[in-house]
Amino acid sequence: MIKTCEQLCYDSYIGGTGFVEVSDLSYGLFDTLQGRILCIRGSENALNWLRNVRAVPWRTCGGHIAHKGFIRAFQALCSGGMPTGKGACDIVTGHSLGGAIATLYAEQAGCKVVTFGSPKVYFRFAPAPVLDHIRITRDDDPVPWIPGMFYSHRTEATVRKDNDHHLLQIEDHFMKGYLTK
Questions:
Q1: Could you read off the pLDDT of 23-41 as tens digits, one per residue?
Q2: What is the DSSP letter of 56?
Q3: Cα 135 to Cα 94: distance, rounded to the nearest angstrom
Q4: Is 166 helix (H, G, I), strand (E, B) or coil?
């Protein structure tokens, strides 16, 4: 299942078939041996990065407090026709911004979520939903550390090490680096 999610996330950046563009965002719904997987592309353009910096606490549809830029991106995809609700998919996945949106999607739909290099989504000083979440990061990827101290991850990460002895390295954030051989 993780390998399939990795490949779909990678394909979302290289123009893989089956993805739907909604404004500056993109998603695809795929029938796989593991079930229906919804994949949400991560940051790829300037508008995506503007969404990333809107780190104001905002209420989600489920009543939790999360990053406003991620909530607005999720709402834009829902308004643009992305299938939502319980039963729309079995697994939602995403990388970077796509992982943050996938986390919000899982809150609403109650499905399993698999993220790669996702930034922090929920406000640290408020309750967050309990999700069936597999969170994968790389040891030098800086994105899972942001936004700063007011947000947090609520699931422990599986950290993939590259043993290159760097503290932080932006190349470790690229989806290509998350692909397992």
A1: 999 999 999 999 999 999 9
A2: -
A3: 10
A4: coil
Under 8 Å between Cβ of 115 and 38 = no
143 CB-near residues (< 8 Å, 6+ apart): 96, 117, 118, 119, 173
Number of helices (H) and strands (E), helices first, in the chain?
4, 11
Question: Distance (Å, rounded) from C-alpha 2 to C-alpha 60?
Answer: 27
> Domain-by-domain residue ranges, the chain?
2-178
Q: What are phi and psi of 118, to 5 degrees?
A: -80, 140
The CATH class that applies to domain 2-178 reads alpha beta
Full-model pTM? 0.94
Name the amino acid, one letter, at 107.
E
Looking at per-residue pLDDT, the higher value among 82 and 164 belongs to 82
> 163 vs 137, 141, 157, 160, CA distance in Å?
14, 13, 17, 9
- Say if residue 147 is preceded by a cis peptide, omega within 30 of 0: yes
